[in-house]
Every structure is written in C-alpha cells, then in structure tokens.
Amino acid sequence: MDTPRSHETAEPTTRLETDIPSYRGDTLSAVTPSLAAALGVPGYEDLLDAGRVRGAAFLLVDGLGTRLLARHAHLAPTLAALAQRGSQLRSGFPATTATSLASLGTGLPAGGHGIVGMSFTADGFGDTEPCPALEALSWCAHTPEGSVDLRGQAPPESVQPNATVFERAAADGVEVSRVVPGFHHGSGLTRALLRGPGRFVAADAPDELVPGMLEALRVPGRALVYGYHGDLDAAGHVFGPGSEEWIEELVRVEALVSDLASDLPADSVLAVVADHGMVHTGEHRIDLDNSPELLRGVSRLSGEARVRHVHTEPGAAPEVLAAWREVLGERAYVVERERAIAEGWYGAVSDRNRGRLGDVIAAARGDWTLLRPEAEPKQTSMIGHHGSWTADEQLVPLLLLRPE
Questions:
Q1: CATH-assigned architecture of domain 28-115+151-280+390-401
Q2: N or C: which end of the chain has fewer CB within 10 A?
Q3: CA-CA distance, 277 to 16, in Å (whole number)?
C-alpha cells in the first residue's frame, strides 16, 4: 500500500470521469416513482415509460454495472439482450449501496434523503455530540471498543424522515411486498428507506426470490414488489469483478431473471436494476491512517474507500483542502463542500443534510482507493470497490420486462 507522495499540482482536474447527472429521470431516483405512477399512485410521474399496469416489481441486482455486463455478455445472453433493448441509468453520487437504496426507496437523490455514503456523520440525535460516524448498512458506529448500535441514538426514521414510495403507495391502497433476506426485516437501513405497511417476505437464498416475487405480484388488486439479490456484489468485493467466483454468480443472476421473465403475471411490469457497478482495485492504494499530512486538522473521516468525507477542525478547512489536493494530485478529485453542492454532485442538498457532507470531499479516480487499514480492516481487504465517478461504477442497466 502506498503512503502518498506530494505532487506538484495543487488544483484537481476539473472534468470528472463521467458527467454529473441531472437527477431528472437519469438516475435510480426515477425508478420507483415511475413504477408508482404506473400503478396510478398520485403525485408521481412515469419518467421511464413503464406504462399503466396492475402490478409493478423491481429487482435490485447489487453490483451489476452496465460495463461489467457488457464485458461478460456471452455468459448472460438474456440479460445482455434485455440490456440492448433497455436503457441505462446513472447510479448517482456516491455509487454505493446505502445511497442507491435510499434513492430507490424515496425517489430522492442523496442530497434530499441524506444517506450520503456508506458511512456519514449524523449529528443532532441523542445526548452524545458529536455522533460517531454511522455505518449505514449495519446502522452501527465502529469504535476501538467495538460496534455500537445507533438505532437508539440516531433513529432511522429521524435520520431519513422523508416518506418512502412504499408508504405513499400503501396509503393509496397498493399491496406492498419486500422480498429480501430475513436480516433486512427491521434493520436500521430498512427502517430508514424501505419502511411502510405491507409484507416482508424472507428470501435468504436465490431460489426463494423468484417464487416470492411472483406470488407477491399475483395478489388481487394493485401490487408493488421489491426484490433484492446481493451475491454478485459480495463476490465482486471479495474476489474482484470478473473473477471466476463473480462469473458464477452472474450465471445465477441470468437464470433468476430468465425465470422471472418467463412467468410474469398479465398486466405487470418488472424492472431489473443495479445500485452501482464496480472497479477492480490493485496496488493503487493510499493508506490514510498512516498519512499524517492528510490527517492534520481533520476531526473525522467517513464515506468509503472510493469517496471520503473529510470533516475538519474549526478553521482548518482551507489548509486541509490544500493538503489533500497537493498530496493526492491526479489520484482523486478533491473539492470543498460548497463546490460539490454547487456542481450538483448530490442533487439538491437540503439544509438538514449539508453537515453530513465533509468540509472536504475526495473522490478517487481510476482504480485508486483511499483506505483506512486500522479503522476499516474488512473494507481494506476487499478487491472490488465502488462509489466514485468512473463509468464502471456509475452506469447501471434498466431492464423493463413485460409478459409476452
């Protein structure tokens, strides 16, 4: 792992590797509002031409980026053919599961729902100030003493108070079902972004996912169904995207989608989407925990290996910004919070969520990672990462399927 070396360039390259999305129908935040509109739920617009239906389902295949699918099209002919007939969305920034799930759950970009990374500060809750960085997938803070459950100190419904699409659909009489691994039920992340009346159906194995989603679609009346498949993402993190283990999971996803497509009920639509893609990282690793020049004036770090929120001591933001730009040079985009907001990285940012963004934000370029081996050993050990602005991370397929 590299300890950073100083670079001559003080200013970052201004052009990102992919364009900043408009967040008006070109990102994941358009998916569930479009499906709700297709079901006739008031207040939503069908931005993706889902049509008018009785039942709408969406399957989230964690980690299935458009670029990855194209490189392995011969192993997933059904998915590849659907992708050619379908369209392409942007994950939105950052391209990470917690943020993307929140955008799917609420129909808002990160600046609106406030889940601005895999981990972020959630100050203003409970008696402890400041709140430790909240790791959204587990809703815990990881401290030297161990993990601390933050569901009491930072209630998910308060951290993310916007109504979910599920809540609004159920209020209009739609039967809502979530077909997900059992541990999702009642988790902090589920309470924050997937909450609402309706059923939770445990699907702890891929062979439980298809029958669970199809049964939920066949209920009388209107139905909105969410299904989640996470094994492809897990294989990519541990073994790398494109590895033998990853390819085995892609073949399983191909079979799963084929089974769903072949038995869809009449008057229904299925959207197959991904939350992000992934990059294979190698030796381009920067050790933040052992880089004193990057930690000087820093109060807290959050985010993930590809995007870091850098919170600074009072008055230290300009010096921290200059140091991160000088040291990281062309290996990352390093901008101040106000610039990221002005350029629209996170969509429209509400006042309540501004402080969750770092005073300085560093987004890794290429296949670089900004690691914390002492604070985040599990994440540091991973081969596949995502979150930043490359096309491999940002571009995701939107496959709309209807009964033949």
A1: 3-Layer(aba) Sandwich (3.40)
A2: C
A3: 17
